[in-house]
Structure formats: structure tokens, C-alpha cells
Amino acid sequence: MTTLLVLTHDIINSWADDPKGPIALHLKQKLLPVEGEGGVIFPPTYADIGYNIDTLSDGTRVATIDSVGSQANRMEPIFKQAPYSNLVPQIEIELHTKDEDDGTKHVDTRSILDLAHRSADAVVHSSPTLAADIAKAFTALKRRGDAGPLCRLAPTSLVFGVWDSRGGSAEKRPRLVRSMIRAWDVERLYAAAQFNSIWKALDEGQQEELRKEAKAKKVELSEKGFADAPAIFRKSDKMPAFRDGSPNLERRVLGGVIPKGRIEREITVNLVALRAIGGENDEASKANRRYLLALALIAATADIELFLREGCHLRFADNDAWVKVPRRGVPDSIDLASEAAQETLLSYANEAVKAFNSKWPKGDALVHKFDLKAAKKLLAKKDEAAPAAE
Asked: What is the pTM (predicted TM-score) of this model?
């Protein structure tokens, strides 16, 4: 039986500090549908193509179940919750205020940890008091390689990757944590449904009046629930419903997939990218790297919710078996999953954050307001390049 390397603060420090240390930490995590082996799951659908299913040279079909960007957006919000919420600044943006019927006001806010593009999100650029500080942080990163200002404002941007495509710096940083879920050897299913309306219960006069009104308003009765409607084909202006007298499968309503092979979540912590992060001096660089590594390890090892979408509810199948990957040779097993390892990670993070939390914004400085005028200016601005879809 292989003995796992027990995690210590010194080991974590070596991953951040030693340029000759391991290049990555990696996990292949087996997942299962909550219904068990062979259960039907629903991948995400994409415009024009439906499911993203690749066919390998041997005929194996591999389906994307959760993309890299989607996984990042699921992991990042864990830092809003205890015991991790004290590890990052809790910056919020007020979008608008609504008067409620009872006379109170409801303020609609978003945490920066919920934004798809993090500190480079359009909402951040449209919040003047926050945008100014973020711009300075990206400038320090671009011109001096100093990640300190961004660590003190939006450190998860460096953990999950960020591209300041809408800002003046155009700085782009790779993900320290990369995760993706795929299902192997999948069989695609199709769905069909029939909506039966109240139409047959209406008298002829009512039906005729509704037909006239629908024609005048240029709407279909089925769109408003007044006609029976089969759900067999997806709407498309590009694909016919039938080809050569047979239903066009590419147009059919999708009904999920049955994975005959494994459902697997792969997680990688990139230690090469981590060690490339700098600071205003050597000590600051070391502090930045240790802090960001602590956040990356917590994000990578935390059990996130796997209810990904309607029809895709997964669970963890086995104990996690992490390895540290050397430049050459065989990867070594490392315990990052046990209760003791998780306690070590949290204590390490609580120590690493001390170099930053005294410089975080506090109180009212954590709340910023979305400004419509700033958003309109952003729309008028010509981007150097549009950010990749998440």
C-alpha cells in the first residue's frame, strides 16, 4: 500500500518558492449521476450545435459536461462562505435600487466573486470608484509585474485567470486552477413531448375569435398556450426538420446522454504559472505566491455542488487521489483530501492572508455603484479584442 505524503506548511511553501519543485498538482475525480451508473445526464447546450460532443478516431464520443469557464464560475463563490470568506475582500457592486410595495427599498447587488470575468468584468469597468483602483492594479501588474495591488482587491482574478481586454492594460493572466468535466463513450438521446391545450374545450365562437386575434397580432396560438403543440424539433432557421423523408437528428429536441464510460472531472493547479507571479520586491513576491497558492489549493480541493443544471445532478464517487507532477519521472501521491489535509490548508491560508487583509478596503469602501453613463461609455469604446466566451 502506497503511503501518501502528509501535507505540511513547509511543503506548501516549497511548491510556491522552489523553482525546481513540482510543476503541477493534478486530480482525476470520478463522478456519478445521483441515479447511479448508466443514469441519463444532460450536458450544456450551445447555440447552433446543441451538445458539444467530439468523436475520436476510434469512434468514441466524448461530451463536455462542464466547461473550464463554467467550472471556475462554480468554484469562485466558495470564498463568499465561511470558513473561506475571511480569505478574500468581499467587494460588492450595487446595480440598482427598487421601491417595494411595502415602502422599503431593495438594493440589487452582485459580489465581484459572482462576475464571469471577475475584476475585468464590464460591470466593474462601469463602477467608477472600483474601476479606478482596478485599473491601477492592472497597470502595476502589466508594467512592474507586481501582483500585490490585485491581491489586495480581487485575488481570485489571479487564481481563476483574468484578461483586462476592456481596460487600458490588456493584461492577461492564465488560470492557476483549471477544472473541466467530460463524459466518455456517450450515447446521445432525443426527447419528444406533447402539450395539450384547453383548445378543444372552447366553443366554436371562442375559437374563431382567438384565431382572428392571433392573426391580427401576428402570433401563433400555440405560443400563447391556446393550441396543442408537439415538442419534437428545436427551432432553427438553418436546419430542416426532415431530410430524405426522415427526421433530421441534428434538429431533434435533445434528451441527454447515457455515459457508457467514465464521467470525470480533471483539476490541475499550475505551479509554473504561480511561480511567475511577482511583487514589488522578493519578499512581496513570496507573499503573493504563497497567498495565491493557498486560495488555489482551497478552490481545487473543496467539494463544490455538482447540481450543474436540470437533468445533470452528479456526486463524487471515490476518495480523491491527488498527485504532484515533477518535470520528469513518475508523479507522487499527495494527501490533499483528508480532513487533516483540509485543516492544514485552511490554517496555511489563514496565515498567508495576514500579509494582505490589513490593506483590504473596509466598510463602505467595499461597496461600489454601477453607473449607467460609464456603461454607455464602455459600449462606445472600441476593444482591442473581445474576451473569450466563458
From this structure: 0.87
Q: How far is CA 24 from the centre of its chain?
A: 21
Distance (Å, rounded) from C-alpha 124 to C-alpha 156? 14
Give me the DSSP letters along 316-368.
Answer: E-S---EEEEPSSSPPEEE--SSHHHHHHHHHHHHHHGGGTGGGS--GGGGEE
What would the pLDDT profile of 125-176 be if each residue is shown by its tens digit?
Answer: 999 999 999 999 999 999 999 999 999 999 999 999 999 988 889 999 999 9
Contacts of range 52-58, beta carbons closer than 8 Å, 24 or more positions apart: 53/186, 53/188, 53/257
Q: Do residues 348 and 84 make contact, with C-beta atoms less than 8 angstroms apart?
A: no
- Specify the DSSP class assigned to residue 303: -
The shares of helix, strand and coil residues in the chain, as percent rounded to the nearest 5, are 35, 25, 35
Residue 186, beta-bridge partner list: 259
Relative orientation angle of helices 339-352 and 9-17, to the nearest 10 degrees: 60
Cell (9 digits) for 169: 492594460
Instruction: Give the distance, in angstroms, between the CA of residue 134 and the centroid of all CA atoms in the same chain.
Output: 21
> Which residue, among 330, 7, 322, 388, has the nearest Cα to 175 in the 3D structure?
388
Task: Spell out the domain ranges in the chain.
Answer: 9-185+258-380, 188-257
- 10/233 Cα distance (integer angstroms): 59
For residue 193, the surrounding DSSP H or E stretch is strand 193-195
